[in-house]
Amino acid sequence: MGVSFRSIFIIVGWLGLVGCASINRSTSESDLLDKKVPLIAVSSTQISPDLLREELDFLKRKLVAIHPEPFARIHKSDFENLFNQVKASLTYPMSKAEFYFRIAPLLASLRDVHSFINLPEYNHQQNDGLFPLAVLVEQDSVYVAADLSDQPVVPVGAKLVSINQAPISYLLKSMRSVTAKETKAGQSRRIQLSFAWLLASMGQVNKEFELQYFWQGKVFSQRLKGLPFPKKKKNVSDKQSYYGFSQLTVSTSLLWLNDFNEVPEVFEAFLEDKFNTMATGRVDNLIIDMRYNQGGLSENLKNLLSRLTDKPVYWAQQGIIKISEELKDNHISRTRKRRADKYKWGLQWLPLEWTDQLQHSIWWGDLGDTITLNLEPVEPYGGYKPKKVWVLTNGFCYSACSSFVASINYYKLAKTVGEKTGSFAQYQFAYPIEIKLPHTELIATLPAMRFDFLSAGENELIKPQEEISRTVEEISGRVDPVLNSALREAER
């Protein structure tokens, strides 16, 4: 029986959900492979060096035009040096995948998770297959979270040594070079969820995969059949939102959120229902699991914050929008969609009350100008509030999720447990706009807005109050030490 890639995502999300902190390294393990295996470029149409250089210049122009502060985390001179090195390397025709591995590190150097090149779409052949293991990336190692084969043979918790003779250390280094990073934990979590597709972009698509893995003090070799590529979905435009609620014990409830993308009116009704349920049952404790939350709408972030505070609080104090042609086109299309159906949320990242006011300012603003928005505090909700709250976090907590954790930490609204978030919160970039490069048709994502939080040290905002490391035994036993720690405290 085949496995759909939707199933892969669910398993990675569920098993990876417990992969929330640094793993303890084995003291008996030695380095087994140090040889280098070159990347195999995905075969496709070759593009001339002249067109590739045009592509690179186009990307730079768009970066400077759209991004409100592209060199906030890298010196402009260092970026220029990297840019010139990439341009000088474009001396022969390349495939889309080869070019991706030249320019993706350029945007990754900005240390901004909203500035990146999307993975190139792979046109697979009949016998091609995707890597069949869900993985956890811990520090500089890759562990098996699940063998998704029809007949699983690789044990959960095994440490990968090589794939098709390529050392994991080499593959992971290549993946880090093209993956946007603000924190290393965030980069690691992003890699593990895109692991099979990153391998595919390197040309690692096989009918069978040859593996070496380390397990219980020994190295094993294994061949695994590749998974079939998922079928392309047509006419799917709106993001789906994943969240839920459960009663763990009589006195403790669990709220889990994989994003803040839900329609705000729907999300508000969900919270109203669940908080009323807790009030009726006299539930004192609430655990909010924010691990693998990609972010989303600030309106939903504000709604949840309001139910945890008894005083006005900020999730950010200021927003700065940079005006560009792309922003104008993007913003007006979202505003039209919002007006066409008032129950649909068509404007990501920005609170509802700005929609009409901003449209006028953006439309009549000059290119390159900025609009500064002073944000109002989140007012406390007047209904039920749990007595004690724990927030679980890990590296795959970006954007609105990171802002939520920062607010929780800054105002001491709950105890945070797990791993540092994936994006910074003292200031971060948002409102992503997609740009198609003209010759390769690669998609670049660039932010048009900056948010600033209250003055505070970055670690104070995004580092959990209790950091928890995870052992190989906990991975292989599918034990969640983060959730267990919060539940133990709640039930004392």
Compact summary:
This protein has 492 residues and is of the alpha+beta class. The chain folds into 2 domains: 5-225, PDZ domain (Pdz3 Domain), CATH 2.30.42.10; 243-490, Alpha-Beta Complex (2-enoyl-CoA Hydratase, Chain A, domain 1), CATH 3.90.226. It has helices at residues 5-16, 49-66, 76-89, 96-108, 168-178, 184-193, 195-201, 264-280, 298-306, 325-340, 355-364, 400-411, 458-462, 472-476, 481-490, and strands at residues 116-117, 133-138, 141-147, 159-163, 166-167, 208-215, 218-225, 243-247, 252-257, 285-289, 318-322, 370-374, 388-393, 415-418, 427-436, 443-452, 466-467.
Question: Which helices and strands occur, and which strands form pairs?
Answer:
Elements: H1 5-16, H2 49-66, H3 76-89, H4 96-108, E1 116-117, E2 133-138, E3 141-147, E4 159-163, E5 166-167, H5 168-178, H6 184-193, H7 195-201, E6 208-215, E7 218-225, E8 243-247, E9 252-257, H8 264-280, E10 285-289, H9 298-306, E11 318-322, H10 325-340, H11 355-364, E12 370-374, E13 388-393, H12 400-411, E14 415-418, E15 427-436, E16 443-452, H13 458-462, E17 466-467, H14 472-476, H15 481-490
Parallel strand pairs: 9-10, 10-13, 13-14, 14-17
Antiparallel strand pairs: 1-16, 2-3, 4-5, 4-6, 6-7, 8-9, 11-12, 11-16, 15-16
Helix pairs in contact: 8-9, 9-12, 10-11
